[in-house]
Every structure is written in C-alpha cells, then in structure tokens.
C-alpha cells in the first residue's frame, strides 16, 4: 500500500501528529539536560520565566474539554450553558487570591509539593496523605478522559484508519517521554506551543465556520430562526437556547429542570466549581516553579481573563451554534430551506440526523465540524486536529507531574526511602509516571459510562482543597482536625450528589432521596458546603495554643510580605464590592436580568446590539470581569512582586521531611 492510496486529509493529520511528537521529544531532551537536582526536576528549580509561566499556566487552565466539549454543550443547551465560559474569570480570581501567597511560602520554606506545604502548616501527616489521595482521585480519571478524547478525535478525523486505542497508546507514550525525562521544565516549554495551538485552533475553526455560514448577519439570523423553532421553552416562554430558566428550580435532579438545567444557581455553583483547577496541587506547582510573582498579574489579567475569555465568549459560542446552522438540527433544516439560512446539503451526520436526538452525542460536534473541511482543505483538518491534541495534553501533563511529585516526595521518601538522593528521587518519579499513565490508559479504554461517571468527579474533588488553601493563606483559626474532617466530609458529599452516590446506595439496598445535582446546584457546591461547615465547627472546638502559635508564624510572614500596600488599603472595600457584584450579576442570580436586558429573546427585531440579549450580557460582564481581575491583581498588588526581601529558611523542605515524620510518630 503506497501513500497515494490514502486520502490527503489522513496524510496531513499523520504529518502534523509526527511533528508534534518530535516537538515533545525535543522538550524532553531540553528538560532532561537541565534537571540536575530534585528541585530542578519537580519545579524547574523555581526558575520559570515570565513567558513560560504565562503561556503554560493558561494552557493548563484551558484543557482539552474547552476545545472539544465546551462547544458541544453550547450546541445542546445554548447560551444558558455558555455562562460556563466565565471560568476564564473565576480561575484567575482564585489565582489572585492564592498564587502569590503560595509562591512566598514555597520560597521561604523550600516546599516542592502542595502536600509538603499543607503537612508542615498543620503539622499533620494525615492531611499530607489525604492531599495525595485527592490527587490520586483527581489525576487518573482526568488523564483517562484526556487520553480517551485524544483517541476518539484522531480516529474520527482519520475516518477510522487510526484506531482510537492505538492513538491512546502513542500519545500516552509521548506524554511519558517529556514528563518523565524532562520534568516540569520540559512540560512548561511544551505548553508554550500547546497554548498557542489551542487558542489559534479555537479561533480558526470558529472564524471558518462563520465564513461558511455566510457571515455575521446570516449567523445572527440563524440564531433567531433557531429560537423560533425551539420546542424546549423556559418557564417564562423563552427559547432555552437564549435564556436562563430561572434562579433555581426545586427539582430532585438538575437534569430534569424544565427549560434546561442551567439555572442561575447551577451556573454559579458550576463555574465556581471549575476553580477546582486553580485550587488543585497542580497550580500549586506552577506557583512554586515561577521565578517571581511578576508573571502572575499578566497571566491572570491579560492571558486568562482577557484573551482566553474573549476566545470562549465569542468563538466557542460560534462553534456551538454553527452545528444548528450547518445541517445538524432537523427542525432548522426544514424551517431554513425556504429562507436559505440553512444549507441542508451540508450535514454534520449522515442524512438529516439531529445530534440532539442522540443522547450524549453532542461530543461529536467539534470533530464533525473539523471534518467539513476535509475535501477542500485537508491540511486544515490535520492542523486543527493537532491544536485539539495540544489542548488535551496541556492540562494532563501538569496534573500527572504534580501527582507523581507527591507520590515520590510525600509517600516514598519519608516512609520508605528517607535517604533517597536527588538522582533516586528522579528515578522514582519516572517509574511512577509510567505506572500512573498505564492506569490512565486502562481507564481511557474502559467503558464510556464508567469513564464519564468517574471523570465528572475530578473538578468537584479538586475544589474540596479550597478550605485548606483559605486556612494556609488567610485563616489561622482553621485547625488540622477541622481541615481533616472537613475534607473527608466534603469528598463524601460530592460522591453523594453525583451519579456514583446513587449507584452505590442502590448496591447497598436503599435509594437516596435526591439525584445528581439536587436543586440545580453542582455537586462541588454541596461538597464545599459540608466541607466548610464541618471545618468551621471542628476548628472551633479543637484549637490549641501550641497549634495556633505554629500557624501564626506563617501568617505573620504573609502579613509582612503579601499584605496590600499601606497607601492602597483604602481600595480594599472597592475590591470586595467588585467581586461580590461581579459574582452576583455575571454568574449568580442577577444573570436572569440578562435574558431581556438588551431585547426580547423571542423577537430579534428588539435586540439592541443585533445579538441576543443574553450574549450581549455575557460580553458586558466578561469585559467587567477583566477589569476586576486587573484591579485585584495590580492595583491591590495581590499578584505583584513583594516589597520586602524574603529570608529563605530551607532550600528543600523534603530533605527534612523524613526526620519530621519520625518525630511526629507516637
């Protein structure tokens, strides 16, 4: 079989995939030659420059789900789901609150992993092990989803010539090479290109689809026609594509809410839950790896909130609605043929199939949109495919590295190999990288139901680290007993309000009185509600003077180096007001005003800016969100260089950890 027997699209895809693999291998070699010590390997010797941090941290926050899954859910649920794009604001908001303070603590005490930081602050090996456990529960399912998405994407774009299982194995091996060989520095260098590719891919695909539809006016006319033909109406009678179905709906299961599940409270709890990415151990690693906090403000304000937010608000929305306007909606096909708004000759699936009639198949959308260009622009399919692969791997590699670092530094070294040298630590990390990837590959090739069930927990579980971060950065009254009990209780609450909780209950012979996401509020909310309640109560009754004195040493240091400058403290109330107002109107109960603030969703002739009111509302509050992040990060100096020099107490905390563990044993 010669090359001429393959379609050009397939050859371009394989060619771009090969180039991507070569780049990743080059990053592995680059990182390996500079990873001399354990600190070099695990956190790039605390020496990542501004651009490496800005692009790398942004790529980690984006993830493959943004590239592949986000437009599909906009296709299914419309602009009510598109409020999820505001994670481009809430993730940097978490970064503003916690990242500089973690960097300061890492620099002063020599912490390399998040578990080391929490364990020392609370003087608790149990908390340190629980952080590692949360990392385990997060990392393997998360990696499995990313690898499964990669395999499915490439298999679809190659028309099945590249089996998804083969692609999963190849990309897992490539990830192993640059994560295991080069460590965090190799990951950061790889993510510079990955960030550029994933952003360019979303913009390019959205722009080309807009051109295919016929331009902005045809696109907006198509959305108006879509609203007219929509049979799923909110309680107010609006199309579910163009309106949020109320503040809250008192349903047993969020998915059963009339007019769609994305009520204001569902949006608020879901978007805040995605902050779990920024509160996870992986972002702690980014904080420790940065050369200085000078990179934090531009990453949070301009790269994430500004650029990433614009891409999601505009181009992901275009992709989602393009599915309806290019033959992927039967009702639109019939209604649009006479008006010329829908080209029924271009189908996303064979015939007149409607993706919405195939449960759970909205994930097909982006690969099918890419394939529309296979005949005319085969090179474009290959390029877009690699953009998606880059988006998928950008997040997975960092979470893998963070978990492997904790396994090596917080489990094996203090308990099994207390005298492990830097060389041995790097060897152990490489072995663990291989083992975790093998587990993730098994996960990726497991049944789809099992994968989705477990993977949906990842962000909600990561969000349960929030009280521990609040404690170490701001709240010395939270005790180790409170954090320990709260974290366990929060994990149980998350499981109980996800599908897995109902299934476990049935196996035990009873049925839970609620379903998944009761009262249209995400499982992460129920988890953090129980978590904070338990943490606060247990902390109130378990505090001791000795523990309090130890924790106060951390907070005295932070007050000296991370406090808002004296001349700007008058701005603090404005910061609180800005955050609360933004949360209320951008992703909270106030978003129902956006349904009609700029026109009637049912009458396109009333749309003030010639776009649906809900979309105009999202653009408005995205812009104000960027201003809010800039104000917090730069004006209040929450993400700027400290004004005082830091006295380093320890270059590598892990060297002392085995002895500390022995001292704490009863």
Walkthrough of the structure:
The protein is 68% helix and 0% strand. Helix 5 (87-109) crosses helix 12 (281-289), helix 5 (87-109) runs parallel beside helix 26 (613-635) and helix 9 crosses helix 14 (330-337). The chain has helices at residues 8-32, 38-43, 50-77, 79-82, 87-109, 114-122, 125-157, 164-213, 216-229, 264-273, 276-279, 281-289, 296-325, 330-337, 365-371, 378-415, 422-444, 448-455, 458-463, 466-473, 480-496, 499-507, 523-542, 545-562, 572-587, 613-635, 657-664. By secondary structure, it is mainly α. It starts with 7 loop residues before the first helix and ends with a helix.
What's the Cα radius of gyration?
25 Å
Terminus-to-terminus distance:
69 Å
Identify the overall geometry: globular
Pattern of helices and strands = HHHHHHHHHHHHHHHHHHHHHHHHHHH
Poorly predicted ranges (pLDDT <50, ≥5 residues)? 342-359, 449-455
How much helical structure, as a percent, in the residues? 55-70%
Q: Bin the strand percentage.
A: under 5%
Question: What is shown here, in short?
Answer:
The chain is mainly alpha-helical and 666 residues long.
Topology:
Elements: H1 8-32, H2 38-43, H3 50-77, H4 79-82, H5 87-109, H6 114-122, H7 125-157, H8 164-213, H9 216-229, H10 264-273, H11 276-279, H12 281-289, H13 296-325, H14 330-337, H15 365-371, H16 378-415, H17 422-444, H18 448-455, H19 458-463, H20 466-473, H21 480-496, H22 499-507, H23 523-542, H24 545-562, H25 572-587, H26 613-635, H27 657-664
Helix pairs in contact: 1-8, 1-16, 3-8, 3-13, 3-16, 5-12, 5-13, 5-24, 5-26, 6-7, 7-8, 7-16, 7-17, 7-18, 8-13, 8-16, 8-17, 9-13, 9-14, 12-16, 13-26, 16-17, 16-27, 21-23, 25-26
């Amino acid at each position: 079989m010669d090359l001429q027997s393959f379609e050009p699209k397939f050859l371009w895809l394989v060619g771009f995939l090969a180039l991507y693999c070569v780049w990743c291998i080059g990053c592995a070699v680059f990182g390996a030659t500079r990873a001399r010590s354990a600190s070099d390997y695990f956190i790039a010797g605390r020496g990542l420059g501004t651009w490496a941090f800005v692009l790398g941290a942004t790529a980690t926050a984006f993830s493959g789900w943004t590239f592949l899954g986000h437009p599909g859910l906009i296709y299914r649920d419309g602009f009510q789901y598109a409020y999820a794009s505001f994670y481009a604001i809430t993730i940097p908001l978490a970064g503003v609150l916690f990242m500089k303070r973690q960097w300061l603590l890492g620099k002063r005490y020599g912490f390399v992993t998040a578990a080391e930081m929490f364990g020392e602050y609370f003087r608790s090996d149990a908390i340190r092990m629980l952080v590692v456990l949360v990392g385990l529960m997060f990392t393997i399912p998360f990696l499995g989803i990313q690898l499964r998405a990669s395999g499915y994407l490439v298999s679809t774009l190659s028309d099945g010539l590249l089996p998804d299982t083969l692609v999963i194995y190849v990309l897992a091996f490539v990830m192993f090479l640059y994560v295991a060989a080069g460590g965090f520095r190799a990951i950061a260098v790889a993510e510079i290109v990955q960030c550029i590719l994933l952003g360019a891919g979303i913009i390019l695909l959205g722009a080309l689809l807009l051109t295919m539809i016929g331009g902005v006016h045809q696109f907006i006319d198509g959305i108006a026609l879509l609203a007219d033909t929509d049979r799923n109406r909110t309680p107010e009678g609006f199309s579910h594509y163009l309106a949020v179905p109320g503040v809250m709906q008192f349903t047993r299961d969020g998915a059963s809410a009339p007019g769609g599940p994305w009520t204001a409270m569902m949006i608020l709890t879901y978007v805040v839950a995605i902050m779990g990415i920024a509160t996870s151990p992986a972002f702690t690693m980014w904080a420790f790896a940065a050369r200085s906090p000078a990179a934090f403000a531009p990453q949070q304000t301009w790269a994430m909130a500004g650029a990433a937010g614009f891409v999601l608000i505009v181009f992901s929305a275009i992709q989602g609605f393009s599915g309806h306007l290019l033959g992927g909606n039967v009702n639109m096909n019939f209604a649009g043929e006479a008006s010329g708004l829908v080209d029924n000759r271009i189908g996303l699936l064979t015939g007149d199939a409607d993706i919405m009639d195939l449960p759970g198949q909205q994930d097909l959308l982006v690969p099918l949109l890419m394939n529309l260009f296979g005949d005319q622009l085969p090179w474009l399919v290959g390029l877009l495919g690699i953009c998606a692969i880059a988006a998928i791997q950008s997040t997975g590699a960092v979470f893998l590295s963070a978990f492997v670092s904790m396994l090596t530094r917080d489990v094996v070294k203090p308990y099994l190999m207390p005298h492990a040298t830097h060389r041995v630590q790097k060897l152990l990390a490489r072995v663990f990288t291989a083992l975790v990837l093998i587990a993730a590959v098994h996960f990726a090739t497991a049944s789809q139901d099992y994968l989705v069930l477990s993977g949906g927990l990842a962000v909600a579980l990561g969000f349960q680290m929030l009280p521990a971060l609040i404690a170490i950065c701001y709240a010395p009254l939270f005790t180790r007993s409170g954090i320990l009990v709260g974290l366990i209780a929060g994990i149980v609450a998350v499981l109980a309000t996800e599908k897995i909780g109902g299934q476990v209950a049935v196996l035990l012979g009873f049925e839970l009185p609620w379903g998944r996401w009761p009262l249209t509020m995400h499982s992460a909310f129920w988890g953090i509600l129980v978590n904070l309640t338990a943490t606060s109560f247990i902390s109130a009754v378990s505090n001791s003077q000795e523990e309090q004195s130890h924790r106060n040493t951390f907070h005295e240091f932070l007050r000296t180096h991370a406090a808002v400058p004296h001349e700007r403290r008058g701005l603090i109330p404005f910061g609180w007001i800005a955050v609360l107002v933004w949360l209320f109107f951008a992703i909270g109960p106030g978003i129902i005003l956006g349904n009609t603030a700029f026109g009637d969703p049912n009458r396109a002739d009333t749309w003030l800016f010639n776009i649906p009111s809900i979309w105009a509302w999202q653009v408005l509050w995205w812009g104000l969100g960027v201003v809010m992040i800039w104000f917090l990060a730069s004006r209040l100096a929450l993400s700027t260089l400290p004004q005082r020099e830091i006295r380093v107490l320890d270059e590598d905390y892990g060297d002392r950890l085995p002895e500390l563990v022995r001292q704490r044993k009863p």
